[in-house]
C-alpha cells in the first residue's frame, strides 16, 4: 500500500486525530492548510491555481452584486424528476455555488464583500427554507447538503462576522430539513443519489461537530462505493451487489473483466449521472482525509480505475467497444476529476495519464458550476499544499 510522505513517522498521531471527537475546521472539502496554500499561490500568480482564480473572479457566481435567486416565497423547494417542475431547484444550486465560491474568494483575498455576500445567501436560505417536495425531494436535499456546509465551514471559521444566531439557524436548516431526508439513504436504490447523500451527511457532520454522524456516513461510503465501481482484481467476474433494486442491473452491462476496470453502475445510463456519483465519492473522501480518516486509502485501486476509465471515455479517443453498453455511451458535461487527481497524483505520485489529459481539456474552458456539486475544483485542488514542503 502506498503511504503518504511522512505518514510512517506520523501514523500514530494520524490515528489519534482520526479517532478524536473534535473536528478540524474548516474541514468540508477544503481545509485550512489547503486554503492558505491556494491563497499563497494566487498571491504568487502561480498556475494552475492562479488562472483558475482569474476565471472564478470573473464568474457570475463571484459577482459583488450577486442576486439571490431563491428560495420560493412558500419556502418549499419543489423539484420533480430531472427538475421538472423546477420551483427553486436550480436557483438553490446556483445560490449554494455562489455562497461557496464567494467564501473561498473571501479566504483568498480577505475582501469582506465576498464574506458578506456568502453570509447574505446562507442567511436567506436558513430563515426561509421550510422543506422539499416532489420526486426529487431526497436528491435535491442531498445536493444542497453537499454544497451548503462547504460555504458555511469557511465563513464560520474565518472571522467573517457571521452572527451566532445566524450560524444556529443555518445549522438548524441542515439538521432539521436536509438531514432527515438523506440519513437513511435513497428511497430507490440509485447509486448517485446514495453517494450524494453520503457526502451531504459528512458535510453536516463536520459543520455540527457530530462525530457519530461522520462515522455513520463514512461506513455507508465504505458499503456503497464497492457496489458502484467495479474492479476486476477485487470483485472477480461479477460486480458487487448491495441490495436488490431498480438500478441494480448496471443498465444492461454484462461484461466484467480487466477491460472494464473502473466501470460504474450507471455508466451505461449516462456519464452525467455517473459524474455526479464520482464527484460525491471523491469529495466525501477528501472531507474524510481532512478529518484524518482513510476513505481514499480504503478504495484506492477502485477509485483510480474509475477516474481513468471515465476520463478515457470522455476523451473519445476511439469508438466505444460493443462490450461496453452495447457500444453506445450517453455523454454529459461538467466532470473535472480535479480533486481525485490531486489526491492520487499530486499527493501520492500515481500517473493517471487519462485523467491528466482530460483535465488539460477542461481547464481550457470556463469551469462548470451549475451542475449541483462541481464548483471550481481546480481553484481549490489544482495543486496540493504538501508540495510546498518539497
Please provide a written account of the structure:
With about 400 residues, this protein is mainly α. The strands form 2 sheets. Strands 4-3-5 form a 3-stranded mixed sheet, covered by helices on one side. Strands 1-2 form a two-stranded antiparallel ribbon. The relative contact order is 0.13. The chain has a single domain, classed as Chondroitin AC/alginate lyase (Glycosyltransferase), CATH 1.50.10. It is built from 16 helices and 5 strands. The two termini are about 20 Å apart. It is globular and about 55 Å long. Helix content is about 55%, strand content about 5%. It has helices spanning about 5-20, 30-45, 50-60, 90-110, 110-130, 135-155, 165-180, 190-205, 210-225, 230-235, 270-290, 295-300, 300-315, 340-345, 355-360, 375-380, and strands at about 25-30, 30, 75-80, 85, 130-135.
Amino acid at each position: 500500500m502506498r503511504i503518504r510522505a511522512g505518514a510512517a513517522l506520523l501514523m500514530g498521531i494520524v490515528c489519534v486525530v482520526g479517532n478524536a471527537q473534535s473536528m478540524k475546521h474548516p474541514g468540508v472539502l477544503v481545509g485550512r492548510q489547503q486554503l492558505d496554500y491556494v491563497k499563497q499561490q494566487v498571491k504568487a500568480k502561480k498556475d494552475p491555481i492562479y488562472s483558475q482564480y482569474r476565471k472564478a473572479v470573473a464568474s457570475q457566481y463571484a459577482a459583488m452584486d450577486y442576486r439571490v435567486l431563491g428560495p420560493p416565497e412558500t419556502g418549499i423547494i419543489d423539484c420533480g424528476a430531472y427538475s421538472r417542475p423546477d420551483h427553486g431547484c436550480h436557483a438553490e444550486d446556483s445560490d449554494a455555488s455562489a455562497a461557496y465560491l464567494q467564501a473561498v474568494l473571501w479566504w483568498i483575498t480577505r475582501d469582506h464583500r465576498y464574506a458578506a455576500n456568502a453570509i447574505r445567501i446562507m442567511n436567506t436560505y436558513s430563515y426561509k427554507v421550510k422543506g422539499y417536495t416532489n420526486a426529487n425531494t431526497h436528491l435535491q436535499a442531498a445536493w444542497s447538503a453537499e454544497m451548503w456546509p462547504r460555504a458555511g465551514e469557511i465563513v464560520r471559521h474565518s472571522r467573517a462576522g457571521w452572527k451566532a444566531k445566524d450560524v444556529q439557524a443555518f445549522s438548524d436548516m441542515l439538521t432539521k430539513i436536509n438531514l432527515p431526508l438523506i440519513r437513511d439513504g435513497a428511497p430507490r436504490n440509485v447509486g448517485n443519489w446514495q453517494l450524494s447523500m453520503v457526502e451531504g451527511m459528512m458535510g453536516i457532520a463536520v459543520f455540527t461537530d457530530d462525530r457519530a454522524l461522520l462515522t455513520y456516513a463514512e461506513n455507508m461510503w465504505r458499503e456503497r462505493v464497492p457496489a458502484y465501481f467495479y474492479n476486476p482484481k477485487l470483485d472477480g467476474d461479477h460486480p458487487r451487489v448491495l441490495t436488490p433494486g431498480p438500478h441494480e442491473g448496471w443498465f444492461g452491462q454484462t461484461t466484467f473483466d480487466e477491460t472494464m476496470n473502473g466501470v460504474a453502475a450507471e455508466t451505461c445510463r449516462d456519464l452525467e449521472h455517473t459524474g455526479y456519483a464520482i464527484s460525491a465519492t471523491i469529495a466525501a473522501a477528501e472531507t474524510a482525509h481532512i478529518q484524518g480518516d482513510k476513505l481514499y486509502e480504503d478504495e484506492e485501486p477502485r477509485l483510480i480505475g474509475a477516474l481513468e476509465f471515465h476520463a478515457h471515455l470522455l476523451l473519445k479517443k476511439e469508438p466505444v467497444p460493443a462490450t461496453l453498453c452495447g457500444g453506445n455511451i450517453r455523454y454529459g458535461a461538467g466532470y473535472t476529476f480535479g480533486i481525485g487527481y490531486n489526491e492520487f497524483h499530486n499527493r501520492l505520485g500515481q500517473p493517471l495519464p487519462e485523467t491528466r489529459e482530460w483535465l488539460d481539456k477542461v481547464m481550457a474552458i470556463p469551469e462548470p458550476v451549475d451542475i449541483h456539486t462541481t464548483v471550481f475544483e481546480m481553484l481549490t485542488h489544482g495543486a496540493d499544499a504538501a508540495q510546498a514542503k518539497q
